[in-house]
Structures are given as C-alpha cells and as structure tokens.
Design a protein that fits this description.
By secondary structure, this protein is of the alpha/beta class. Helix content is about 40%, strand content about 20%. It has a single domain, classed as Rossmann fold (3-Layer(aba) Sandwich). It is built from five helices and seven strands.
C-alpha cells in the first residue's frame, strides 16, 4: 500500500483529502505543523508528500529541504492557495525538489489523478 503524508493546516480540507485518499486505497497520515511533518516523514517514509507551503506553525520549504536531503526518492506535490509560490515552480522543478504544483482550489478527482500518475512513475522529471 502506497503511503501519503498530507501537510496542511486547514482541518476541513485535511479531512476531505484524507478520506478521499483512504477510500481509493492509500495509507494516509496528516500533519498540521512543520515539526509534526518532519517526525512523520522520519517514521513513515511516505511515497508522496502533499505539501502546503504556508503553515500556521512552520514553513513548507523546510519540509521540502528535509525530504530532498534525506529522502530524495519521496515525491512531493506543492498544494497551496498562494500564487506567489507558482513563481518558484520552474526553479524547484529544475532542481528536482518537487514533482508538481497544484494551486487550490481544485477538484479532488484531479488531485487523485495526479497522485496516481506520480506514483506510477519512478522519475517525476519524465512527467514535466
């Protein structure tokens, strides 16, 4: 079973995502704070992290750096409502720091389709 970590500080959105991903067969953990996310990554070693860049308690870039330095095989989707992060997209994609970028809001079906596509490939760069 593929493992997904959702790092998001919106309780309602987190629950919607968690339920949808569990329903299609993924093992899902949730973190709402940067420190919690880092602890879960160390223990869970997820296949995929869905990462909000702006957290109430922390910053998505620190989590992204941890994943890239210690778990480079872990795929990352940046999932945020803040368009200013879209400007970082091409830089982060080139540096292989993330697989894709999704700007909220987006239908859950599109997120699941993107997850399935990412988990079915060994190299995110082939999807670019």
């Amino acid at each position: 079973m593929k493992k997904i970590l959702i790092v998001e500080d919106n309780n309602h959105l987190t629950e919607i995502l968690r339920e949808a991903f569990v329903e299609v067969g993924y093992n899902v953990e949730v973190a709402m704070k940067e420190n919690d996310a880092m602890d879960i990554i160390e223990k869970m070693k997820p296949n995929l992290v869905i990462l909000d860049m702006r957290l109430q308690f922390g910053d998505g870039m620190g989590i992204l750096d941890l994943i890239n330095s210690k778990y480079p095989e872990t795929k990352v989707i940046i999932y945020t409502a803040f368009e200013e992060y879209k400007g970082l997209q091409s830089k982060l994609l080139k540096e292989k720091k993330l697989c894709t970028f999704i700007l909220k809001p987006v239908p859950i079906e599109k997120i699941i389709a993107e997850i399935e596509k990412l988990l079915d490939t060994s190299d995110c760069q082939k999807l670019q």
